[in-house]
Design brief:
3 domains, 280 residues, alpha/beta, 5-stranded mixed beta sheet, two-stranded parallel ribbon, TolA/TonB C-terminal domain
Length: 280
């Protein structure tokens, strides 16, 4: 730039002297103040519009009135209370005729000492119907009728021999029974038990001479088969320890099959002979 032009040139022209002014930086700096002024003017106008809009009076918008829809007219019928259903009573049934009958006497084989005079069975007759209970009524002459309502065959729910089971006399010791008590398995099982458990040399160990030494033992067999009250009925004198050995083997024999009387287990006193043999 010449000296004479420097005095007329601006600071921006001096700064960009000899440089590419078409690049853009020159134009931006040259028009900077104009752009600032334009921006300030635009901003002021926007502020004035906003403030003026808030100060102007606004017209209040009233809400729209609700719309009412009217439907068709409905006429309700008069309510009628429902009638209660009629209860029809069940048909009455006539009670069956009460037939005259006599209770069947169940034969019980017992010792005469256990029968009391007031327990003698009634006499049976062919002129009256036999049934589970004794009652008075109409004689049907052998016609079939409904049986009386009873609990069990004997009327107490325990069968024909329920009274036998409840009789206190059957809790006592029986001397005579229909089936005696026995060792489970019979004689063969009893023989095997003695062979395994009996100490047959006890007489020899106590100095017994050759011979047979028989011991008879008595003991109670309860209704559950347990044994008790083992005693010696007869034994040789001297017994050379055979009596004590017989008692021991009975006490360790376990439960027996109880005696039976009238189909029921009863208490019974059993006798058992045990023979010890001493050889030469």
């Amino acid at each position: 730039m010449d000296a004479k032009d420097i005095m007329r040139a601006s600071q921006l022209d001096i700064l960009f002297d000899g440089k590419n002014k078409d690049y853009g930086a020159y134009t931006l700096r040259k028009n900077y103040h104009k752009r600032i002024e334009l921006a300030m003017v635009v901003t002021g106008l926007l502020v004035l519009l906003f403030v003026g809009g808030t100060l102007l009076p606004h017209k209040q918008i009233e809400p729209a009135a609700p719309q009412v829809f009217v439907g068709p007219t409905v006429k309700l019928k008069t309510y009628k209370k429902p009638e209660k259903p009629k209860v029809i009573p069940p048909p009455t049934t006539k009670a069956p005729l009460k037939v005259a009958m006599q209770k069947l006497t169940v034969p019980n084989v017992v010792d005469d000492r256990l029968v009391r005079p007031d327990e003698m069975p009634p006499k049976q007759t062919d002129k009256i119907k036999v049934g589970p209970v004794t009652q008075t009524g109409v004689n049907m002459d052998g016609l079939l009728t409904a049986p009386p309502e009873v609990k069990g065959i004997s009327g107490n729910g325990k069968g024909m021999i329920g009274s036998v089971n409840d009789n206190a006399d059957y809790q006592k010791e029986f001397k005579v029974v229909q089936v005696e008590a026995r060792y489970p398995g019979g004689q063969e099982a009893w023989k095997k038990y003695l062979e395994r458990n009996l100490r047959r040399q006890v007489a020899v160990d106590n100095g017994a001479s050759p011979g047979l030494y028989a011991v008879v033992v008595s003991f109670l067999v309860a209704r559950d088969g347990s044994t008790s009250e083992v005693t010696v009925v007869s034994a040789p004198d001297p017994d050379f320890g055979t009596a004590a050995e017989a008692i021991r083997v009975i006490e360790h024999s376990g439960k027996w099959q109880p005696a039976i009387q009238n189909g029921r287990s009863v208490i019974y006193r059993e006798r058992q002979k045990i023979i010890f043999q001493v050889s030469e």
